[in-house]
Amino acid sequence: MPYVRIEMLAGRSEDQKAEIAKAVTEAMVTHGKATPGSVFVVFQDVPASDWAVAGTLMSRRETKPG
To answer: How many domains does the chain have?
Structure first.
């Protein structure tokens, strides 16, 4: 029973998450020999203020145009 936890910055739509869950499930079926009904995908949305890269909170990073 594969359990896949996906942590990512908040902001993806429900439709985007549905597509990701479908793709991850298909990958587990194809490459992990799981059955679709046995694959659990759980999303954890993390606020930018709780995620840091290279010592800088994502909420404090400057955004570059384009």
So the answer is: 1
